[in-house]
Specification:
mainly alpha; 2 domains; elongated
């Protein structure tokens, strides 16, 4: 017997709907799959296309800054080094990413950002 059958059966038996309505809503909300995080790698070719078509948005740039911020937080948690302060300015990051993706269109944006982060960490 699934959750829906149980609820309908209880209602037919005379149980009050006011007690089962929250349960019914909960079952409906949690019955379907929810994916809160998209883990697909973003290809550099798509970054290039968006940039050249003037479609680069604030959201894309904020994702880049957030990704680097997450790498910085992880580095700080693992070895106590604050990498965030060592990262280049936001526009310099985007410039570097543009150049990298133009030269390596088959790469991904996250791989490029990890490369930049590792270069900064190594002091290059």
């Amino acid at each position: 017997m699934n959750s829906y059958s149980f609820i309908i059966g209880c209602i037919h038996q005379g149980f009050s709907l006011k007690y089962f309505l929250p349960l019914m809503v909960s079952v409906c909300l949690f019955a379907s799959e929810v994916h809160a995080m998209d883990t697909a790698a973003r290809p550099c070719s798509a970054w290039n296309t968006a940039r050249k078509a003037n479609l680069s948005s604030v959201v894309q740039r904020e994702w880049v800054y957030g990704y680097l911020s997450g790498l910085s937080d992880a580095a700080k948690a693992i070895n106590g080094v604050d990498m965030y302060a060592q990262l280049p300015a936001n526009e310099a990051i985007v410039e570097w990413l543009n150049q990298h993706c133009e030269q390596q269109a088959n790469s991904t944006v996250d791989a490029a950002l990890r490369e930049l982060f590792n270069r900064v960490r190594a002091g290059q």
